[in-house]
Amino acid sequence: MKAAVYRGKGLLSVEDVPRPDPPVEDEVQVRVTRAAVCGTDSAEWDHGPLLTIPPVILGHEFTGIVDSIGPSVTGFSPGDRVVAGAGVSCGECEWCSSGRTNLCSSYQTLGLQIDGGLADYVNAPASTLMLVPDDVSDDEAALAQPQSVAMHAVRRSGVAPEEVCVVLGAGGIGAFIISAARARGVGQLIALDIDAERLETAARLGASKTVDVSGVDLVEAIRAATSPDGPHVIIEATGAPHAPAACFEAVRKGGRVLLVGLQGAPREIDLFALTVREVEVTTTLAHVFAEDLADSLEVLRTTDLFDVVVDRVIGLDQLVDEAIRPMAERRAKGKIVVDLTR
Question: Is residue 139 part of a domain?
């Protein structure tokens, strides 16, 4: 079968590899139909390994058709359409027992530490899979995992429908966060970015206001777009070095800042100001399968998310030149999906 095999920085190629062994115990073998390309994939190619354990087949955002099942699998049959959450948790540790499976003591991800779905076939634990509704296409289902990450982020922010929410960064995961916040009924949803096309996408996804912050003071821009007191919630989705400090300063007293974008180095924080203003700082990681994936599929079923955020659909042989490289060089205009049936 064909698969995208990652072997280290700059070393990613589509190769002929053996098909996975027949599934055992709780495994399901999936014939992949679509796989979306994540920024993590391009980051691994550009300056990894970071999260991966090479050699590994990439792809943690995928959907397909059940080909065969292990002897202990229930709830799935050959021919079923399924989508992967991709996070593999033990189900037994303290974090899993409390419902925080994304923090599992032995957490791994298909496509990062375990062979993933940028391949014709993949073996996945049944616990990571969910049936795809008939009225959600394969193209749409390929976006369920990143949308789940966004759903989890918005939950973690605690934003209520009547609160003012600023999303800093409308590209990549930021676009999905805007979609998730709108799905949760947030009315005053303000997107900030430095790219006009990303801001246009944010408006199509439901942002009530968009602001181009190119060359302006970020704190002043946030307050001008909301109120002198600042918004109730700021979701930082850029990972830009200066962004966390600006968010902490711009949010209102008693407000909340959710950090989504990953920082590449330690940053200085004014803890005195945070403390005396009772600013709450929260972080987020991946998603919780049981809480987020079904809601993600519902968003995909009831909105035009795919049409708004997807830049192109390509074949697997085009992966490096038409997806990974443009994403690493920040030339991609939106999400890129791979059609494994081509």
Answer: no
